[in-house]
Amino acid sequence: MSRRRRGNKYDNRSGKVCITLIVLTMLVVMSVQIVEIYRKNQAYIAQENSLTEQLEAETERQEALKEREQYVNSSDYIEDVARSKLGLVYKNEIVFKEKKK
């Protein structure tokens, strides 16, 4: 009854080698995936910073447009356009023109 199998010693080694190879393969694959995810994360952070800067610039532009809209709707703007483009003046104003030599 004390019979031992001769191949049992070699079966344990090959099993351990297979498990070790599988674990190492999984570690390599996971390492590659971690590096890839890190690179994507850095790209997303850079994109977020860029979009934040664009948002700030557009917000400033929006405020400038609102100020411009208020000026365009004011009587000062109408007077400026009437004077510069149309050459209009008030009735009680005196206009001096340069003589052409």
Helix/strand layout:
Blueprint: H1 8-72, H2 75-84
Architecture overview:
- The protein has 2 helices and no strands.
- The relative contact order is 0.04.
- It has 101 residues and is mainly alpha-helical.
- The termini are far apart.
- The mean pLDDT is 88.
Major sheet: size, sense and barrel closure?
none
How far apart are the first and last residues' alpha carbons, in Å?
A: 134 Å
> What is the N-to-C succession of helices and strands?
HH
Helix content: over 70%
- What number of structural domains do the residues give? 1
Number of helices: 2
The parts where pLDDT drops under 50 for at least 5 residues are none
What Rg, in angstroms, do the CA atoms define? 41 Å
Structure summary, number of beta strands: 0
Judged by helices, strands and strand pairing, the structural class is mainly alpha
Question: What is the mean predicted local confidence, pLDDT?
Answer: 88
Strand proportion: under 5%
Shape: rod-shaped
Short summary of the structure?
The protein is 74% helix and 0% strand. It has two helices and no strands. The mean pLDDT is 88.
Task: Offer a few descriptive terms.
single chain, 0% strand, 101 residues
